[in-house]
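Format notes (please read before filing issues)

Several people have asked whether sequences and structure tokens are stored in separate files. They are not. Every record keeps both together, in the order shown below: the sequence lines, then the token lines. Line labels are part of the format and must not be stripped during preprocessing.
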Amino acid sequence: MRKWRVTVVASFAVAAAFTLPSAAAEYLLGPQDKIRLKVYEWRASRDVIFEWTALNDDFVVGADGTLFLPFVGQIRAEGAAPGDLARAIGDRLMQHMGLGRQPDVAVEITQYRPFYIVGYVTQPGEFPYRPGLTVLQALGIAGGLRTHEDDIPRLEREVIAGQGDVGLLALTTVTLLARKARLESELAGAEDVTFPADLQDRASNATVAVAMVQERRIFAVRKDAMTTQLRSLRELREFLEKELDSLEQQLIFRDKQIELIQKELAGVSALVQKGLAVAPRELSLEGTVAQMQGDKLAAETSLLRVRQEISKTDIEILNLNNQHANEVAGTLRETQSQLNEVTSKADTAAQLLHETAVTAPALLALKQRSESAKPIFKIVRTTDTGTKELTAAETTPIEPGDTVKIEIPPPQSGLAGLPVEGDLQAGTFPVQGTN
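Then the structure lines:
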């Protein structure tokens, strides 16, 4: 008999340690509670019921637990039941307004202060409280326990998107490598594009082959255009050199003509002085010499012009080569920068894809293990003495301001048996690299 009594006492002690206050207890107001006042007064002298319209409104309990009411002032509401608060407001009105009796005051709770739920739930956060709310009902309000069913499709989409990103980056890398090879060949003045060994080894791949063919065509077109421009300038220079030779020959011929006419003029001038020749003949020869010297001067001017045009053509050829080299070098630097960036992105994308591919089957295994685990319920409650954490059950009532914590215990065997990198079969989650 004594053993039975001890067991009963111990059972009641345990129940008292973990049982929360009953939901049937009278509700006590607190901060964030929203109340509605209804104040009426019977005035026998007029045989009417007077409504206190200034007080018949909604009010919210402040953070300090008090209410500020017209004709009443500041009054304590925290910790008081609605009926007690109504009597206190009636007493305060009777005192402040000099009434003979208390007016009829009704306090109605229009909105309870919220409670909170966190942890392994679908929608954690803040929710409005209602009397009689239990832990299980709160769990239902938060959408129930969180599952991995939503995570698995998301991971599958991430794997597909990751594969697309890796493939796109690999294609971009091939394109940039082929472009870089073409630019280097242009800069070196080669006759054809010399592709790197890693592209040549994969020439059987359709994507790589197309990229190489396209760059060879671009190389040929640009080379032909450059050759055409240079050929035009060189032909112009050859023409100017021939014109220069012609002018130089003309100058030689002019010099010989002037020399002959000057000799003839000297002979005529001697005869004129002796009276053996007439003066007009001398004047005619002098005019011819002057005209020949003018023609020579014009030819020398043309000669200088042609030499200047040749110099300009040489400068244009040099500028064309320099401009082409600078353009190719700038594009090559830009291509190398893009290639470095794409290579870094490709490495990151491949790592993310690999991690996602490993995580997906791991989550599937964890889901199967966690489905059999029972949730652990706890309530964090703030009291006058501080904050304390209480162990709860599904039927435990909740009070306003409580924070409900829901946890799922980890599998007893931990992550043993989960697939790791070496266990993934090739092709299950293909990661396409750039090589």
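For reference, the curators noted about this record: The longest strand covers residues 34-43. The helical segments are 2-18, 82-97, 135-141, 151-188, 197-200, 206-274, 279-370.
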